[in-house]
Amino acid sequence: MSDAAASVDAEPGRIDVLDGRLADEPGLARATVQVILGLMQRDARVLRREFASFLTRTIAQPLLFVFVFAYVFPRIGQDIGGVGGAEGFATVLVPGLVAVAVIFQGIIAVALPLSNEFGSTLEIEDRIMAPVPVGVVAVEKILFGALQSVLAGVVVLPMVLLVPATPVELEIASIPLLLTVTVLSALLSGALGLALGTYVSPRQIGLMFSIVVLPLTFLGAVYYPWAALDSLPWLQYAVLANPLVYVSEGLRAALTPTIETMPPAAFLSALVLSLTALTAAGLHGFLRRTIG
């Protein structure tokens, strides 16, 4: 179909070409919502069948870290953290581990399935046959990844609160701040998973954990507040390229206000910018891989 033919109005409602498809605009929004809900229902059924696997991959790493650093170390008299000793370190650690769970879940829930769909199962071809723009399929993956990220955070938080040998000074500083950080962080997680899943070759998806995931974790203000890096100014500013820093600082500001963090305006703005950039990159990569 030529561009001229695509722009002709067949009825009072406009008909446009979107991602190579002919779509009636008045019904496009309704069809988009229906397709997203349908895809999410399908993904939810798969998640229910694999819920034990979801719990295992969600709690394994945070449980190990909080057990060793916040339970074993204080019990054997090992001081760690440099922020109020062992007790202060447990308070610092809890929001960071929740942040890791949120970010990792988006990567695992979006990037790994995408790698399989592009590389072996080719299931993505069935999804993009839906009567909506191809980008809608990518948006659904971000949204479902975000839902799984929120669920991961809800599962991990009580676990890491119960394990430490020393009390954790948890206090919700602001419910609106907590909800805003949670939503932005979850969407950021899904967008990061989409970007990695579309730009990393399926054959190199295992290498991604060595060159992307581990640096994200250890340089993401998980085990220390960002302000504690002031004695290493070059590193303090270098890690600002890591989106996990803003998730950790945001959750720390919302859940443990006794710990010094970035100003809310700083980490909220960075979360929005990171989300926008990763979403744009992920959508571009998805369209390139599907209709490129």
Q: If you compute it from the alpha carbons, what radius of gyration comes out, rounded to the nearest whole angstrom?
A: 21 Å
Number of helices: 11
Largest sheet: 2 strands, antiparallel
Order of helices and strands: HEEHHHHHHHHHH
Helix content: over 70%
- Characterize the overall form: globular
Strand content: under 5%
Counting helices, strands and paired strands, the structural category is mainly alpha
Give the terminus-to-terminus CA distance: 18 Å
Q: How many distinct folded domains?
A: 1
Ranges where pLDDT stays below 50 over 5 or more residues in a row are: 1-23, 82-87
Q: Mean pLDDT across all residues, rounded? A: 79
How many beta-strand segments? 2
**Numbering strands along the chain, what is their spatial order in the largest sheet?**
1-2
Question: Keyphrases for this structure?
Answer:
two-stranded antiparallel sheet; 292 residues; globular; 2 strands; mainly alpha
Q: How would you characterize this protein structure?
A:
- This protein is mainly alpha-helical.
- It has one domain.
- The protein has eleven helices and two strands, in the order H-E-E-H-H-H-H-H-H-H-H-H-H.
- The protein has helices spanning 3-6, 25-49, 51-75, 85-121, 124-127, 134-162, 175-199, 205-218, 233-238, 243-255, 264-290; strands spanning 15-18, 21-24.
- Strands 1-2 form a two-stranded antiparallel ribbon.
- Strand 1 (15-18) and strand 2 (21-24) form a beta hairpin.
- It starts with a helix and ends with a helix.
Briefly characterize the structure:
With 292 residues, the chain is mainly α. It has helices at residues 3-6, 25-49, 51-75, 85-121, 124-127, 134-162, 175-199, 205-218, 233-238, 243-255, 264-290; strands spanning 15-18, 21-24.
